[in-house]
Amino acid sequence: MSYLKTFLSHSFSKLVPKTYICGGSARLLSDVSFVHRETDVDSKNFEFNADNKKRAEAIVSIYPEGFRSAAVIPLLDLAQRQYGWLPLKAMNYVADYLQMPRMRVYEVSTFYTMFNRQPIGKYHVQVCTTTPCMLRGAQEVYEYTKELLKDEKDFTVIEVECLGACVNAPMIQINDDYYEDLTNEDVKQIIA
């Protein structure tokens, strides 16, 4: 068994540069907590505010009777927008609201990289590094962006898989806004 583990890790490290293995990718941020235990940052109670309760009711109402759980992704997104990230108590609240097993909500929140399982900065900068973006200079844009914002507490910079703007690569997403066909100079102007 240890031979296989050594072989796989050695072979994998030859194929994938270290920056991808231990870089700040969305995969690493989204699967931080597979255990789903409360931490110090999870300690606050969570409940939708009045406006979001109305939104949640409207979202759930579009699904047929018996299919409330189909609203899990939009309600997790709503919870994340309200709180800034997705703590365990918010996931539990959504599960209880939808009358579904908490584990199903945990599965969804850890599968999709759009859900942030740790606190993030006010500005969430996601740099696409999938093949089309990579071929057009995304790695340089990513490294430049990380360096430019390394001391900024309000910014979280991560590397993500395809954001669906391949025709205008390379691109970044800052919160909900896309910026495409970028150079390092463009990034500097956008951030400034």
From TrEMBL:
Entry protein name: NADH dehydrogenase [ubiquinone] flavoprotein 2, mitochondrial
Cofactor note: Binds 1 [2Fe-2S] cluster.
GO biological process: mitochondrial electron transport, NADH to ubiquinone
Cofactor: [2Fe-2S] cluster
PANTHER family the UniProt entry points to: NADH DEHYDROGENASE [UBIQUINONE] FLAVOPROTEIN 2, MITOCHONDRIAL, NADH DEHYDROGENASE UBIQUINONE FLAVOPROTEIN 2, MITOCHONDRIAL
Keyword RNA-binding: no
Top-rank lineage group of the source organism: Eukaryota
Family, per entry: Belongs to the complex I 24 kDa subunit family.
Keywords: 2Fe-2S, Iron, Iron-sulfur, Metal-binding
GO cellular component, one term: mitochondrion
Entry keyword Iron-sulfur: yes
Gene Ontology molecular function, alphabetical: 2 iron, 2 sulfur cluster binding; metal ion binding; NADH dehydrogenase activity
Organism listed in the record: Oppiella nova
Matches recorded under SUPFAM superfamilies: Thioredoxin-like
Pfam families per the UniProt record, alphabetical: 2Fe-2S_thioredx
Binding annotation for [2Fe-2S] cluster: 128, 133, 162, 166
InterPro entries assigned to the protein according to its UniProt record, in alphabetical order: NuoE-like (IPR002023), NuoE_dom (IPR042128), NuoE_N (IPR041921), Thioredoxin-like_sf (IPR036249)
